[in-house]
Amino acid sequence: MTQQATKPASDYGRLLAEIQSAKLLDRSVLLYLPRLFVMLGMVGGGLLLLDRLGNSWWQLLVAAYFGVVFAQIGFLGHDAGHQQIFRSRRANDRLGMLLANICVGLSYSWWVDKHNRHHRNPNEVGRDPDVERNILAWTSTQAESQRGVFRVVARHQAVLFFPLLLLEAWNLHVGSVRALLTDRRRRLVELPLLALHLVLPVTVLVLVMSPLKALAFVAIQQSLFGLYLGCSFAPNHKGMPIVTEEDQLDFLRRQVLTSRNIAGGRFVTAVFGGLNYQIEHHLFPSMPSRNLRRCRLIVKSFCASHEVDYREASVVGSYVQALRYLQTIRPAT
C-alpha cells in the first residue's frame, strides 16, 4: 500500500472537535424509537402472515421476508454494540444481547470483541479478523497457502463470492457457539439465550406447518439472512488497500483509506442500516447511525482540505470493485 507521508495525529483531534461542536455524537434512545417501532411492526406483521398462511408452501415467501427482518435486527444490534442507542453501556449491552442472542442467534459478546478488533485495525492482516484466511483468501500469500477444496475456491472466489454468502449466517451461528464453549463466564449467560433463539422459532414453525415445510423455511430464511448481511458488509472494505506493518498511518488515515462509502439517498441508508457511511462510522463508531449523513459533509470536506483520499462508490460499483479485487487474489497454479 503506497501512501503519502503520515500527518500529525492532531488532524483527527481537529476533526473530532468539529463533530463535537455539531453535537453529532450525542445519544438519545428517543431518536431510535421510530426505528425500534418499525422493527416491532415488521416482526409482528411477519408473525401474523405466518399464522394466516398456515401449512402452505407460500410460507417460503415469508421465510425470505424474515431473512430481511433478521438482517435489520442485526443492524440494530450492531448499533447497540457500538453504544450508539443509550447513554448507558449496560442498557446498550442488554438490548444488544436481546437482539443478537435471542432474536438472530448470534453471540453478542463474541461479535463485539471480534468487531472491535476489526475497527481498531481495519484491513490489517494479522490484526483484523475480517481479513483472516478462511474459505476466502484476501491476500496472495493467503491464496497460496490454501489447500484442497479451499485452493479450488481461491481460484474462482470472485465467482463464488455471492453463493458463499448464503452460508454466512450458519458460519456466524457456529462461530458463536464455538467461542462460548471456550469461555465459561460468557457461556453461562449466552448459551441459554442462544438455546431460546433455537427453541422459540422451531416451536412456532412446527405448530404452523409440516416438518418438511419448516425445514425449507429455515433453510431459505437463514440463507437469505446471511446473503443480506454479507452484501451489506462486503462493500465497506473489500477491494480497499490492505495495511501492512510497514505502513505508518495515523488513526484518521488508517480509517479513511481502508473504508469505502456507498453513495445513495435515504433508501440506500435504510437498506444498509446506515453502514453505507462506513468512513464516518469508522472514524466515530459510537455516533448514532442517524447522524452519519450529516457527519459525511464535514468529514468529506475535512479530507479534501487535508489531501486524504475519500472513496465513495455506487452500490453496483462497490461490488464490482470488490469482485475485481478478489479476482486478482488467486494461487499461481
Describe the model.
By secondary structure, the chain is mainly alpha-helical. It has one domain. A two-stranded parallel ribbon has the order 1-2. Helix 4 crosses helix 10, helix 8 packs across helix 11 and helix 8 crosses helix 16. It starts with 9 loop residues before the first helix and ends in a 5-residue tail after the last helix. The N terminus is likely disordered.
Short description:
This protein is mostly helical and 333 residues long. The protein is 68% helix and 1% strand.
The largest sheet is: 2 strands, parallel
Count of beta strands: 2
Strand order of the largest sheet: 1-2
The average pLDDT is: 93
- The geometry reads as globular
Question: What descriptive keywords fit this protein?
Answer:
333 residues; mainly alpha; two-stranded parallel sheet; 2 strands; globular; disordered N terminus
Write the layout of secondary structure elements.
Blueprint: H1 10-21, H2 29-53, H3 59-81, H4 89-104, H5 108-120, H6 140-145, H7 149-155, H8 157-165, H9 168-181, H10 184-208, H11 211-237, H12 251-257, E1 261-262, H13 266-272, H14 278-283, H15 292-305, E2 312-313, H16 315-328
Parallel strand pairs: 1-2
Helix pairs in contact: 2-3, 3-4, 3-11, 4-10, 8-11, 8-16, 11-16
